[in-house]
Amino acid sequence: MGLRDQLLRMPIEQRFTYHPDDNLFFVNLEGHRVHSHEDIEEIRRIVASKLAPMRRKVYAIVNYDNFEILPDVIDEYSAMVGDLVDRFYSGVTRYTTSSFLRAKLGDALKQRALAPHIYENSAEATAQLRNLDRKRSGLK
């Protein structure tokens, strides 16, 4: 029935956290499933509601470990990601331990002219985000 799965799953609203000291927005999609247009719009709505009031762009790290997305909605999902990047992110990195998801999602992001590289773990994604920040700040 999936009842255990439903009880253990983190509510979507709790998956988005802003850390003001680092100007970092963390998106935890670990174990989350995107199966429909409504799932995609829910993510867009939550991100916009948290970041639009800031009136400045933030850095973002997205955790895609054990993330599931149906092939039928991956293009729509990638378009939504592109919209969020344009509107709210000054830099973004992503990670997942799944080589299959890195390839699948990476290809979809590349088709939308978004940075397609998805790192293997949080440490790599964080290090790359710091590099982006240093480059924007003019530091080496």
Number of helices: 5
Q: How much helix is in the residues? A: 40-55%
Characterize the largest beta sheet: strand count, sense, and whether it forms a barrel.
Answer: 4 strands, mixed
Q: In order across it, which strands form the biggest sheet? A: 1-2-4-6
Our Rg estimate from Cα atoms comes to: 15 Å
Structural class: alpha/beta
Strand and helix order: HEEEHEEHEHH
Please describe the structure with a list of short key phrases separated by commas or semicolons.
two-stranded parallel ribbon, alpha/beta, globular, 140 residues, 4-stranded mixed β-sheet
Please give a structural write-up.
About 45% of the residues lie in helices and about 20% in strands. It is an alpha/beta fold and about 140 residues long. The mean pLDDT is about 90. Strand 1 and strand 2 (about 25-30) form a beta hairpin. Strands 1-2-4-6 form a four-stranded mixed sheet, sandwiched between helices. The protein has a two-stranded parallel ribbon with strand order 3-5. The longest helix is centred in the C-terminal third of the chain and has 16 residues, at about 120-135.
In short:
The protein is of the alpha/beta class. The protein is about 45% helix and about 20% strand.
Write the layout of secondary structure elements.
Layout: H1 3-8, E1 16-19, E2 24-28, E3 33-34, H2 37-51, E4 58-63, E5 68-69, H3 74-88, E6 89-95, H4 99-111, H5 122-137
Parallel strand pairs: 2-4, 3-5, 4-6
Antiparallel strand pairs: 1-2
